[in-house]
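Weekly structure sync - notes
Attendees: PM, LS, DV (DV joined late)
Agenda: review two folding runs queued last week.

Item 1: First target. Sequence and structure tokens pasted below for the record.
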Amino acid sequence: MKLQATLIGFTAIVMWSFLALFTAASGKMPPFQLSAVAFAIGSLPGIVTFALRPERLALLKQPAKVWIVGIAGLFGYHFLYFTALRNAPAVEAGLIAYLWPLLIVVGSALLPGERLRWYHVVGAFAGLAGTILIIGKNGIAFDPAFAFGYGAALLCAFTWSGYSLLTRRFDAVSTDVVTGFCLATSLLSLVCHLGLEETVWPVSTGEWLAVAGLGLFPVGAAFYAWDHGVKNGDIQILGAASYAAPLLSTLILLLTGFGEPSLRIALACVLITGGALLAASEMFRGKGRVRGA
């Protein structure tokens, strides 16, 4: 069961790797508007489930702390990420924000029943090194003038890692509540859009399909899969494996003609894949299944 849940959680990482492609193909819709639309679409599977099985609506009756953590995680992460990108260079802000997998691995030591091993940490750092190679391909230069943006990116990393770790503490809460988190995030994103942005709609069928794909997978099904994975799977492996998202995203962009292969990407592939395999070595030996039984 633990291995299966971990694999389900990994599907979220695979879906997140399509985020850049779908976003690039979605046209010029501003970020908060895109977030509002995508999260609304992402909530549709849950809404359909509730319509077909109304008795599951009772599962939405959860303590306030569950809703606070869920909404703060989904909306808070995106709000801080967009704020970081508005106030700092994308490369440096992206690298800081992508500290969250490492924070999940290290923070997992605070969870009941979890034991942080050296190979979890080394695997996560290898993934971070590979991510730096991908995101920082043109160099990295942290300028104090962008301190506010960097701070928002750091809070972004702590927000998503904190959400993931706290979600593990709510393992008895049904994944159905993610529908509510998505709806709330959509509404809050709409408020931010109306106050901060001008409305821009897709102008072609291809752009609308990209927005739909974004909502159904990276901003939809991925959050349901991640919720199940971190609650029931190996959160340390998922944390280290999360660095596969920028690598897979880059490979997808290469395959779709948005980039060119290089030795740097090959090295990043070795670091990220090797780091994930190292972090998962205990599960491959079978001890992870015993410990999770």
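Item 2: Second target, run right after the first with the same settings.
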Amino acid sequence: MQVLVRDNNVDQALRVLKKKLQREGVFREMKARQAYEKPSERRVREKQEAVRRAKKLARKQAQREGLIAGPKPKPQRGARGARPGAGAGAGAGAPAAI
């Protein structure tokens, strides 16, 4: 796995690396390997995961077919993540106009 560091921005590169590792399931696997898991416990866990995946797939299919309502759309934010009311001079460092 490879992450490019641009403009000596190591913090950004670390965030990208962590996100990639999370997607690959590395952290989940490390946690699972910390302690021994009995075969019976493993079967129970895998069965629960399969049920959860099946329910999620059925829910997505029902949403596509219009049988149930889909998730609420997230509100659109302004340009480059600007918060409402965070215009010029509306920050914590700006003095209040009275």
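Discussion on item 2: Residues 37-68 form one domain.
Action: LS to circulate a short write-up before next sync.
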